[in-house]
Design a protein that fits this description.
It is a single chain. This protein has 130 residues and is an alpha+beta fold. It is built from three helices and six strands, in the order βββαβααββ.
Length: 130
């Protein structure tokens, strides 16, 4: 796989993402459904957004590894939240280290949505290549 990122504006370096990712000659592409804070028994979390994000990241990492991919191969990571301001105020100390831990340089979209399933407040949707 050949990976090239594009971020033509100086402000982009402060966004924990890049504006575009080009992949040439991938061995495979994994399209992950949105991952949320649901435990192994299918029970959704009622915890605060920060705690839900921790479990959501663990679920995403588990899915990617079980599928034979690596989190460093994430090229697109969409974030859906019921409260964007809450995400910025309470979750960046979890989200940014996750990105840095795996050396991820991803295209991303952050959307505030009216609601998610049950009591969920955050969802991550990834595209991964190898």
């Amino acid at each position: 796989m050949q990976k090239t990122t594009f971020d033509p504006w100086a402000w982009g370096k402060n966004t924990n993402s890049v504006q575009a990712v080009e992949i040439k000659q991938p061995e495979g592409t994994l399209y992950c459904s949105g991952q949320v804070a649901i435990d192994a028994n299918g029970v959704p979390s009622a915890a605060n957004m920060r705690t839900q994000l921790i479990q959501t990241i663990e679920n995403l990492e588990h899915l990617i590894l079980e599928s034979g991919y690596k989190c460093s191969g994430i090229v697109r990571l969409n974030v859906y939240t019921t409260a964007t301001q809450d995400f910025f105020n309470t979750c960046m100390d979890v989200y940014v280290p996750f990105i840095q831990k795996h050396g991820i340089q991803q295209a991303t979209t952050l959307l505030e949505v009216k609601g998610l399933f049950a009591t969920l407040t955050i969802e991550l949707e990834a595209t991964v290549v190898k």
